[in-house]
């Protein structure tokens, strides 16, 4: 249906049959190829009657609606009126009684497409991550000029009724101040903001960033515009201040890897829901819950979304934040924790030293995690130390105290500013009282406690690897940035193939024995196949199929670097080059270390920041829990303090120690990997015959949390 509801009302050429070929090469295109339009006609009964006639004439009784809460509400109303609309069409003679019976039920499934991420029931809406990419690209560019000229920049981002974009952008770039509709600043915020900006400059900062959601207001409902904030800073502080309004830049551009995968999974789930629907099945919406695509009651989600606005209108701002969901609430709490430094007299007294180090290969987002750990640690009253060059630097004594201001601006930096090494060393350093990051190293330290009493301290590891091969966690810091690098390269490769008739590209990704990057990168780039270690293949799987249309101008095959001892990238390249003579030519690309470089994606910045804050709070809890009064240093019972690994499963932060049995140490991969369930989806979209069913039913988060509270009260 072209042009949304308007096309459904107008009919004619706006309703076309979609073929496999007609949707090819759309994956990397931003916006909507089939168009979208606001439709006043569909709001009227007469408009919906014309829409029903057009659908019946073409035999359409299933609708997959992609839009916001208004579009989905309209779709549900259309479904409820369907029987009455058919009766009217029969009475007017526009359709027969037989046609009315054949098309007696209309099935609706919704998918939420909104850059604001303002729909309750889903962790992320389609388009949000891409909008965050546009915002962060602008912020990173602005920060260089702001630092050069010692300027303050006020950035206005979209979010008339929802502050998600502003909040996550502020968290991802380390903004000095953020203004969002859900949590208006308290009276006197002007003086507090100016004091914070002034203190930042006194500590040596050369720039300030303030992010304002377009719907920001004060506690009395008065709008706070970006220009008003600029005038305030100039009047009170005299800082050179500029305003940048991003506007519709946030809606455009190439979709991110996350959005491509999210939309692909939701699209398949929507089709499965329609195929399984019966006449009595209520309308549902496909949502993302953790790493799972789930179906939720459509109108219940719409009503809860409207409850958020109602809470804001009634100035129940804490309720509005809670109703936005756990993720929004965590983002807000983490931002508050990291952005406002307490004065020394307000800090809790602590004599603990906490060290932070990076181990293994660099991963984008490590610096954001270090910044978060350092600042949360200082807020908890600890003395923070940074270890350079991983355990090698630890052994050499490359340890120095790190202050609040030392990590300013680290969030957007790629690589590892502390330095990192993959080499493991036996360690004996008696003065560091806590450690962060690296699985095997942590196990070695844990085993060494029987020989070295100094290792009987809380230790916590954060999963940080582009390969996403750490046991126990769904995600690792750095994997999302690497996926975006792979997808961006594949997009350029496909453009280079546009002038040829037939061409096969073989692309080798990193990952060792873990096929996460190859599989998910293939899904996001629209590859024809992905060969990985976890799924053995033979010569028959390498056959290039002749069933593709003549005008398919490229194949892309993502090849994991250790997927097979014999079927290497060079072997497959030579095989295709020889066997494809006269039919197609072949090219190979080894992406190499470009997958480890670049500025971290918004997701990795946000993820690293939040997971490090959780880890540091856990360490503080353990330090205080097992500290014995009257001793000069931490004195703990060996069996009481465990080494912990913080992971994310189904959007819940989990501290876990029992992961040895879940890990294949020979190949350095988990024994069970959630993303393998996506491989059938990748094959279906590449036109292979296979089955796919990973669907699940879900519950609205606020209902689950309320039930938990009721149970605890009992």
Automatic annotation (TrEMBL):
<dbReference type="InterPro" id="IPR035966">
    <property type="entry name" value="PKF_sf"/>
</dbReference>
<dbReference type="GO" id="GO:0042802">
    <property type="term" value="F:identical protein binding"/>
</dbReference>
<keyword id="KW-0808">Transferase</keyword>
<dbReference type="GO" id="GO:0005524">
    <property type="term" value="F:ATP binding"/>
</dbReference>
<dbReference type="InterPro" id="IPR000023">
    <property type="entry name" value="Phosphofructokinase_dom"/>
</dbReference>
<keyword id="KW-0324">Glycolysis</keyword>
<feature type="domain" description="Phosphofructokinase">
    <location>
        <begin position="353"/>
        <end position="619"/>
    </location>
</feature>
<keyword id="KW-0067">ATP-binding</keyword>
<keyword id="KW-0460">Magnesium</keyword>
<comment type="pathway">
    <text>Carbohydrate degradation; glycolysis; D-glyceraldehyde 3-phosphate and glycerone phosphate from D-glucose: step 3/4.</text>
</comment>
<keyword id="KW-0021">Allosteric enzyme</keyword>
<keyword id="KW-0418">Kinase</keyword>
<dbReference type="GO" id="GO:0003872">
    <property type="term" value="F:6-phosphofructokinase activity"/>
</dbReference>
<feature type="domain" description="Phosphofructokinase">
    <location>
        <begin position="3"/>
        <end position="273"/>
    </location>
</feature>
<dbReference type="GO" id="GO:0016208">
    <property type="term" value="F:AMP binding"/>
</dbReference>
<dbReference type="InterPro" id="IPR015912">
    <property type="entry name" value="Phosphofructokinase_CS"/>
</dbReference>
<dbReference type="GO" id="GO:0046872">
    <property type="term" value="F:metal ion binding"/>
</dbReference>
<keyword id="KW-0963">Cytoplasm</keyword>
<dbReference type="GO" id="GO:0005945">
    <property type="term" value="C:6-phosphofructokinase complex"/>
</dbReference>
<protein>
    <submittedName>
        <fullName>Phosphofructokinase, platelet</fullName>
    </submittedName>
</protein>
<dbReference type="Pfam" id="PF00365">
    <property type="entry name" value="PFK"/>
</dbReference>
<dbReference type="GO" id="GO:0048029">
    <property type="term" value="F:monosaccharide binding"/>
</dbReference>
<dbReference type="GO" id="GO:0016020">
    <property type="term" value="C:membrane"/>
</dbReference>
<dbReference type="GO" id="GO:0061621">
    <property type="term" value="P:canonical glycolysis"/>
</dbReference>
<keyword id="KW-0479">Metal-binding</keyword>
<keyword id="KW-0547">Nucleotide-binding</keyword>
<dbReference type="InterPro" id="IPR009161">
    <property type="entry name" value="6-Pfructokinase_euk"/>
</dbReference>
<dbReference type="GO" id="GO:0006002">
    <property type="term" value="P:fructose 6-phosphate metabolic process"/>
</dbReference>
<dbReference type="InterPro" id="IPR022953">
    <property type="entry name" value="ATP_PFK"/>
</dbReference>
<dbReference type="GO" id="GO:0030388">
    <property type="term" value="P:fructose 1,6-bisphosphate metabolic process"/>
</dbReference>
<dbReference type="GO" id="GO:0070095">
    <property type="term" value="F:fructose-6-phosphate binding"/>
</dbReference>
